[in-house]
Amino acid sequence: MSEDDLERFHTEFRKVMKFIKYSENKKALQDMLREDKSFETVSRDTANVINAVTHSGLKIPENEEVVNMCKAIEDIRTEGYNEGRDKGYNEGRDKGYNEGENRLGKLIIKLSNLGRIEDISKAASDSDFRQKLYKEFQIA
Q1: pLDDT tens across 90-99, in order?
Q2: 58 or 89: which carries more pLDDT confidence?
């Protein structure tokens, strides 16, 4: 192993150890990556070791020999944010849909029990009329 290879190994090993040291504390890791510009150019092998040891979920482009760890971490944060946002949106939409279905079901039952069959049809097609009926029957 040449002197240059040995120096590169030590440098990359230090990066692995430093990343591991901060990997349990997101804020400290972000601060360290922001301050230590050497993480902007990490070898693919080093990134793979960091990923394997810390289970960071880094996306390492196949055609890249050098990885920008700051960008890789930011990509993970963005992906996590987007997944959380989408999950919250879908859960909220589903909850709202179910609540709306239940509300409409209650209205139909009330109207049916009162023999107001024509109002059922009108409520199905006229949102303003339906809202008026919800108020009339105090259906929240």
Answers
A1: 999 999 999 9
A2: 89
| φ and ψ of 43, to 5 deg | -65, 155
48-60 pLDDT per residue, tens: 898 899 888 888 8
| Phi and psi angles of residue 66, each rounded to the nearest 5 degrees, phi first | -125, 140
Q: What is the DSSP string of 49-117?
A: HHHHHH-------TT-SEE-HHHHHHHHHHHHHHHHHHHHHHHHHHHHHHHHHHHHHHHHHHHHHTT-H
CA–CA separation, 123 vs 130, rounded Å? 5
3 state DSSP class of 42: strand
Cα(42)–Cα(60) distance, rounded to whole angstroms?
Answer: 11
- Rounded CA-CA distance 15/36 in Å is 10
**pTM metric for this prediction:** 0.54
CB neighbours (10 Å) of residue 37? 9
